[in-house]
Design goal:
This is E3 ubiquitin-protein ligase. InterPro entries: ClpS_core (IPR003769), E3_ELL-like (IPR042065), E3_ligase_UBR-like_C (IPR044046), Ribosomal_bL12_C/ClpS-like (IPR014719), UBR1-like (IPR039164), UBR1-like_WH (IPR055194), WH_DNA-bd_sf (IPR036390), Znf_UBR (IPR003126). One of its GO terms (biological process) is protein ubiquitination. Ubiquitin ligase protein which is a component of the N-end rule pathway. Recognizes and binds to proteins bearing specific N-terminal residues that are destabilizing according to the N-end rule, leading to their ubiquitination and subsequent degradation. It is a single chain. By secondary structure, this protein is α+β, with helices and mostly antiparallel strands. It is about 50% helix and about 5% strand. The protein contains 67 helices and 25 strands. The strands form ten sheets. Strands 18-17-21-22-23 form a five-stranded antiparallel β-sheet. Bound molecules: zinc ion (7 copies). The site of one zinc ion has 7 residues, from helix 7.
Amino acid sequence: MRTLGGEQGTQETSESSSWDSVEQLTINLDLSTTPDQMVEIWKKNFDNGYLNSRHFRDYWKFKVPNIFSPGMNCDCLHIVFDEDEVKRVLLDPLEMFICGRDPKAVFKELSELDNPPALCGKVFRMGEPTYSCRDCGTDPTCVLCVDCFKRSAHKQHRYRLSMSVGGGYCDCGDPEAWKTEAFCENHAKGLAASEEGREKLMARMPPDVMGRTKIVFATVLKYAYQILTSELTMNLPQDLQVNFPGNEIAQLSLAEEEVYCTMLFNDETHTFEQVIDTLKRAIDCAQKEAVDFATIIDREGRCIVKCSNFATCNNVRLVIERQTSRQPTNQRPLKVVVMPAHVMAHQVGAMRLLNWLQQLLGCCEAFRILFSDIAMEASSKEMSVVEGILNCDTQLWKAARSVWHHLFISGLLMDFENKKRFAKIFTKYYNVMMKDFINDDHDHSYSISSLSVQLFTVPTISHHLISIDDVLAILLRFFTSECERRRNDEGKLSFERNNSALRRAMYVLYDLKYLLSSKPETWNEELRRGFLHGFDLLANLLGWMQGMDATKRQVGQHMEFEPEWEFAFNLHFKLAPVLSLIIDWCGTDKKVLTKVYRNILKKIGECLESEMKTPTKLCEVANHSVISIDYDVSYRPVSIHLPLSRIFAGLNLLLSKFGLDYYGFENISNKPNPVQIIEPVLRTQVMVAQVQAGMWRRNGYSLINQIYFYKNVKCRTEMFDRDITLLQVGASLIEPNEFLIHLLNKFDILGWTMKNYEKNIFHINEDEDTARQITILVEEFLNLIIQITGERHTPGVGEVTPEEQTMKEIIHQLCIEAMPHSALNKALPEDTSHETHIESVIDKIARFKKPIQGSAKGVYELKDEYFDQFDVFFYHYTREEMSRAEESQIKRRKVAGLELCCPPPPLPPFTQAFMPISNILQSDVMLYIFQTVFERTSNLRARTFSETQFHMVLHLIGYALWEEIRFLSRENSIGYHFTDRADKFDILPLMESLRGNSRIDNHKVLLDWTIRKYKEILVKRGTVSEPVSEKMFVDTEESKAEENEKKRRAKIAAARKAAIMAQMATAQKNFIMEHKAEFETSSEMKSAYGSLESVMDVTEDVSPVAYGPGQTAAIDTSKKLVCILCQEEQPVTGPGKGFVYGTFVQRSTVMCQNTTKLTETMDSMGKVLENSPFCINPDVLVAPFVSSCGHPMHASCWQSYLEGLIARERRRPRPRPSSSYDIDKSEFLCPLCQCLSNTVMPVLPGLNSFATKKTTVDEKADLSFEEWYEAITLVTKSLVWVEPEKSKENDDLVDIRKFDRDTICRLRKALIMIGRADVLCEYPKLSGDVSRVLVNQGADEMIKIFFQCVLTVGFDETINSDHPRLSMAICQAAAYTFLSTQNYLESEQKGLFELSSRQQDTLSSFARCLLCFPHALNEDELQAKILEDQFYGALETLFQAEKSKASPIDAVDPFSILVTLLVCSSVFSDSGRVRQRILTVMDLHLVRLAFAMQVIQSFLVVELPTADELMEEEGAKAYTPGQTILLELYEKVRGKECACSSSRFIEEIEKCCKPFLRCVALFGHFFCEVAAPPEMKDYGGDSIQSLLRYIGLESIEEIVQKEWFFSYAQRCLARRPTSECTLKYPLRGRTLIELPHDYSELINEVAQFTCPNSDGDESRTPTRCLLCGAMLCSQSYCCQVELQGVSVGACTNHAHYCGAGVGIFLRVRECKIMLLAGQSKGCYMPPPYLDKYGETDQGLRRGDPLHLCKASYNKWQRLWLSHSVQEHISHAMETSQSLLQTDWHHV
Ligand SMILES: [Zn+2]
Ligand SMILES: [Zn+2]
Ligand SMILES: [Zn+2]
Ligand SMILES: [Zn+2]
Ligand SMILES: [Zn+2]
Ligand SMILES: [Zn+2]
Ligand SMILES: [Zn+2]
């Protein structure tokens, strides 16, 4: 047992005998001892030299259980500790004792003794931002906190932002962490003093304080260690037990029956749901409680779930264990422990003391030195506390672990000497820790072994550990021993799937990387010994890996099981950086390199040993023969894992630096020869080639995946790239002809090289498949030769710098296409610090093309002069990239007027060691192969020829020619004789003979290029004298003619295509336009309402008027529609099948003016109509919004479409995966444009189609406003005063009983009383044609469906269409829809009538539904009565009748009340006609009165400057009579004087009223179907004057001078309650919150945010509501709440209230937008933050600085204001490919 708890306990008791004498000096302690008394006793004993830890423990023995014991039936959710008591009883006495007097003062003095700190050391909480500097950081783990970063030089450098996972600390002030600028401004101050020794520092501390501190620290540490690590959970160490016999007080202090706790621990195998379910059963609690428990367990690592007597507690334990072991996926049950309450209390006490200690350590350096001495002090008998914790970390629960880890960070890591000492102890126990970690199941960040990153990354410490503590060997021995068990019979590693233990063990590889991350500048013998010792062990491991996961080609049957391959690649992935670093280290010391190289050669030899017996065979080509290894790749196992060969390749690149070479290494037993060395790698290459040739088809995906990763940018540096280097090493060591024959043999294409192959040998075997295979194998062989001879950009192979290597990669990426920064960065390999070094060269070779206006990404374009370096056979290209690159280069060359081929680029020279490689190109075998390929090209019967082979041969010849040109230009060189040698093989004549060969048509330009280059050399060499330029000219002529022909054909094709396109476009236009409809203006498109629009556009000589007697005639709107479902065309008017539009009704808070009332409103939407029946409450402004995409369908077609949808949905399994529409809410997508809908709106005929005869203006109908006003006064009076009995008395006044409706009765009565009965009598009853049309078309049904949806969705009312509130809901929805459309247009700076076709269609159909719906409900007497009541109710409210119950003026929205009145006034018309003349007259009067109300309201709201505020007023103060009245009213209402000019005053009033007038104008346009005035199509064309003219009203000033206005205003204001006015004018929609420019500000902000439900704990997914700015703890159990019976996450809940179900959030840490709709829909979207390359960084993966992009933020703003969030989500969900389902209700 490694824990010390038990042992120590016994030690204590054995020691206690020696304390007997001491005890006599203490008074008897008991519960009544006060803290002050205690401090006195401690002090006295200290002064007398008697004090020891026993004295403290005796005190804690009583006090700790007293404070921290949970009571009976308590649990984690209900425990509350008395924090004041904790401080007073537990902590204060310790501080008091240490200080001797006022602790605060003493601590302050102590910290002032300190030098200013030179090291920051701020410990990061999870999610806190950290900054690393890519220019100065020693490695990427070196980070700064915000404060330091902002005060450092690095903020001007290339920095990266990331988020801490918790546990690390700020490296500011650590010179080893930074190459330069190690100190921020703050910590630089500490630099000067930091040189001071620790003795001096300690000497400054008062000795008595030091002595007391020592005792307290030692006691606290030991106590906490003992209590927390003790496995004896039933008992305490003896000296802390209270209830020993004879102590009555103890008996009293604890309850009669001893309390026990059932403690449930966290593990990583059980899910949240399993724990919750188990708890519900075990302790019989509610879901909510169970969730809370589970949350605490997850956070703290454990939780008390029950406090009771032992039997009960134990029973709970048994139930939990039984429950959780039953779950099939988990072998182990959850860990549950029953412990006595007082034991638990001591554990809590110990944690508190440790926390206190950690805080105290921050006080001064001296404390930290004392602490580390005590914590790391070991005796012969026992380990130090640090050692103990390192040994038993995993036995602790999460919270206890963190307490210790943080204590160690604050106490041990802030000082270099302590850190080093700790690192040595850490290294000593590394094995133990890692073993524990592997057996444990918690995350690595919760293991103490994760502190390695703090220790091993410090260069001096890591070098010290390597040389003195043999750390490399310790780590590697541990890792190899973990691997050793997994070796197979051949001694190679072999892994099963899901190897979690080894997966955890691989953390060792990260530690190795940390240790090696900084190369030593100088070596000493110890360092060499340590490094080489480690390397020996590593070499063993590599030996086990060499050849692992070997595959054999499957013949006959397909592979039955896919073999495991991922694990080996995982291992490679983690090991690769270590290997790269090892090679780097070797490059700095000759001795080390020599030893390592020798070691590896030996190892390769050992591995080959078993293969030495491999048979050999004699091979012959072109008169060269060689004995080659006979290993048939297609029948024997081959592996992709060859780390030994690869590290050997890497080492070879270093040899020449120290004047070494392969031949210099003698005396190695089994020293492998070069042929043997390249053999394994060659096999892999051949296997890859065979896979390409389709020979390994039966081996399944496992092999395909391996090859993919082998060449992938993430793995290739230590795989594919090294293999090519190794083959180059081989090529430089082996005679060229031999080398080629070995390769041909391995590729198994020796037969192909024979002259008679096509004629004789091949004809024996007629197999097509074989021919194809051979063809491809030859291509692959040639390709490999291209790579071996052409890839010279690896430093060491070619004369290049690392920058040139990076440049070559970038050039080839940019030759494919121009790329954005992040994509380019991703395509480049990373070094061990995750850098691609792109910035260091990119500006030299490429231009950055800035993004165009926020939408597109900025891209890099290669500079022209670098295109010459393009090599089409670049070895990192995939096949697809190769063809794309070639295509785009040919295109570019065409534009630039260059030759249409991609000739090989000139190459850099090989280094001395690799020089021999170029001889391959002029070797006999190579030239023979060239010859063979050329011959087969002209042989039309050759079946193994391909154009690619020809292309590759020309490419190789090109390389050779460049090589010769280089040598020619040099004086006194050995020379290169390609042309000489090629002559012997007739290469030039062969090439010339192929000119015009149709088989190689695609490469004829390249052939010309090659011949030309060839001849240039001949000329230079003086072999030939004639110039060859004119041929080139002819060529271009030819190609020009060809070009012209091509162009002509292309033209014809284009014309034909255009014709087809035009046809298609006509058909598609609508559809495409509709998709963009939200963001475009109507002027560019024509919709189904196109005809209407164009008619409405007609500019008349007289400007149009919408309301009143002067009304312009309604426009003619008859038209035809095509059903999108059955394609039938039909006019809207007349009998026949009716049309509908898919329509979406949503509850909206866009126009909400007082968001604080949203919660209340949402909880009782039903009450909204009750409280404010006739208009929208102007304070809250929440109502249904209606929108439609305007795609017509027959009502019947739509119904069968919907039925089909529902039937299909029923067949789907439940619970359904989240879908883009919720059929339970009757949602569906428009069949044409996929627009989200939840109801339909009928498409009704226009006004004109109902008018039997155009009604001419009737003079008699001209009822003046005053007359009307008088009548209304009477009407409203009668409403209030006339009791039923009294009204009988008045019966004789008028004879109105002949009308069967009360409706007419009241108004008529009033009109008769004022003597204008005539206006009512003129209109004979017409036949009921409106109703008939509606019924014929089935539109009455559709109207009901539509209106019912408005009621249900808008107001949570689920009652049928007879519902009395139906018409109220409709009127509010109408008013709201017009109101917010008007607002949207304003915010988009569009003209009032600059509507999109969708808006046009929506408003027009909606208005017609409003016109017709009283008729649709015509037959229903009840509805007619309801409408009538509503009309009079609304009238009363607008009129503000005295003594009525109508809402007072500041609770009335004038526009929405006007809409109610206009819509309901239809009851006055006969059933046959939609609108009557009388109504037209009355309409204007209603508008005028509503406007008057708006003007009066604006007095209440408008803010005018007072005299004091106005220093100097511009215009005159003269007022017109109208203005005077206005001003008087204002001053009366507001009780203050107006000091500003009259023009300013009127301007302000108008500003308030303008939105109202705009709404009235917009409504009039659609409701009365009057053409819009042309000037209002443009933004700013809606002056008050033109608005008033269009509406038909006179100016404000004129209105206010009227007599009625005065009495009306008086009445309104008199009824007004005295309270503050809550109205806001002018009305504006809610905008999204302001976001900071710099993204890191947001991150800093959320770092401060803690979960509101988990006292002070950080939130994992802090999410900001962009509508109101609220910060939420998203996607976490802790903040789930119940919403409408479902438990939902914080965001879903917030969105329900804040946006009526719609939410726009910013997930700060993940840096993405989250949109939510309802409880089942949502999507993630890119954030409005961009890096300097114009790219977003979703998920914050790159960490480059991000800044707000206004344009893209406005996009979200627009989406919100246009009510398109839900639709946007549906589109996103519909198009998303992701298989991952998100439970949107849990976010
Ligand atoms: Zn810092
Ligand atoms: Zn700092
Ligand atoms: Zn820097
Ligand atoms: Zn149809
Ligand atoms: Zn549509
Ligand atoms: Zn909000
Ligand atoms: Zn939370």
